[in-house]
Amino acid sequence: xxxxxxxxxxxxxxxxxxxxxxxxxxxxxxxxxxxxxxxxxxxxxxxxxxxxxxxxxxxxxxxxxxxxxxxxxxxxxxxxxxxxxxxxxxxxxxxxxxxxxxxxxxxxxxxxxxxxxxxxxxxxxxxxxxxxxxxxxxxxxxxxxxxxxxxxxxxxxxxxxxxxxxxxxxxxxxxxx
Length: 177
Known about the structure:
Layout: E1 4-5, E2 9-13, H1 19-26, H2 29-36, E3 62-67, E4 73-81, E5 86-93, H3 102-116, E6 122-128, H4 132-140, E7 144-149, E8 164-170, H5 171-174
């Protein structure tokens, strides 16, 4: 994993010292709204295999995002390998950083890195259909809506009845081939 630099962000491989910042994100009901209905995550009872949703600072595919100018924690991004050629993009930002274009800036840098250096041929991302802000991020970075799936969730959260959307981009699309 490389350190990635954008106009306003530095994305560095996460480390255990980032854990407190990650946990603070999980405690914000608005940040968690489309993930679990807005409840603070209880790491003691959470699924231990859910590192994609609850990084601890030791995951090999998670980058910590900080503002380059002052080092302030912005959030995290991940490019989780599903196979040698396919990865899933994920991100979570502090509410104070929403609406500034930082999610698309960081996600774009990570997707570009994934195609150029990690060898991925396709990158996917998912969110609830009603999460319009996250969908806009995916569209801004060139991802296209691939499908909407309905689910029968054991603990449905508001909006889940509209399904989950899958977006994707292939390396040739990202490079404009």
